[in-house]
Amino acid sequence: MLPGVGQLPAIKESRQIPERTVHQDSSHSKRILVVDDHPIVRLGIRQLIDTEMGLGVIGEADSAHMALALAADSKPDVVLVDLSLLESSGLSLVRQLRESAPHSYVLVLSMHDETRFAERALRAGARGYIMKQEAITGLVHAIRVVLSGRIYVSEQVAQGLLEQVGNPERFLAGSLKVLSDRELEVFELIGRGESTAAIARCLAVSVKTVETYRANIKTKFNLKDGTDLVRYATSWAEHF
C-alpha cells in the first residue's frame, strides 16, 4: 500500500546569475544544488526553498559540467535536476551524479511528462520526480520526502509502477522501452509537433544528430518514412 500521496516505500542582488553560482549559508542544515538552464527558473526555485526552515540553496548551475563540479565541491544533500540542459541530457547527469556524488540525493524537477520520464529517471538513479507545474505547492514536500530516504513520485506514477510489478507483460507490449533516453526525448518532441531544427535547439545538438535519432526510431519501430514517424509519434502523444 502507498504510505501517502506522492510517496513510495524506499525502493530504494539583483545581479544576473552566472552559469555557476555558489551560495554559502551556515544557518541552513540541508544543502540544495539547483541545476537548470534558465536563470529565472533557478532564481524562483532558490527564493522558494530559502524561505523554508532547515533548507537552503548553496549552488546553481546551468550545465552538467558545472553541476558535477559543484556537487564535488559543496557536497549538497539534494541536487535538483532539470532534464533539459545545455549540451547534455538531464538523464545522463543523473547517472553521472549517482557515480560521482553518491552522498547526494537527486530529485528531478522537469517540464517533461512524468508518465513518460519518471521511471527512466528513477532507473538512472534519481530518488524522485516532480513536474515543474507542481513546484510551487509540492517541491518543498518532495525535497523533504527525498531527504527522509524515501522516493517521491506523484500518486499517478506510483500506481503505474505498482501495476507494472503486478502485470509486467501489459506494459512491455508496444512500449517505448526499445528507445534510448535521448531517442525518447526526440520522439516526444516529434509528437508535440516540433520540427527537426526546433528539436535540435531544444536539446542543444546538431540537426544532423536529430536526423540520426529519427532514423534510429524509424528502424526500431519499423516505420516506412518520416511521415509515418510523425503520425505515430503524434498519435502516441495524443493518447498518452
Structural notes for this entry:
There is one protein chain. This protein is of the alpha/beta class. It has two domains: 7-164, Response regulator (Rossmann fold); 181-239, Orthogonal Bundle (Arc Repressor Mutant, subunit A). It is built from eleven helices and ten strands. It has helices spanning 39-50, 64-74, 90-100, 114-124, 135-147, 155-166, 168-172, 181-191, 196-203, 207-221, 226-239; strands at residues 7-8, 20-22, 30-35, 55-61, 78-81, 84-85, 88-89, 105-110, 128-131, 151-152. It has a six-stranded mixed beta sheet with strand order 2-4-3-5-8-9, with helices on both faces. α2 (64-74) packs parallel to α3 (90-100) and α9 (196-203) packs across α10 (207-221). The protein is globular, with a radius of gyration of 18 Å. The model is unreliable at 1-5, 8-20, 24-28 and 168-174 (pLDDT under 50).
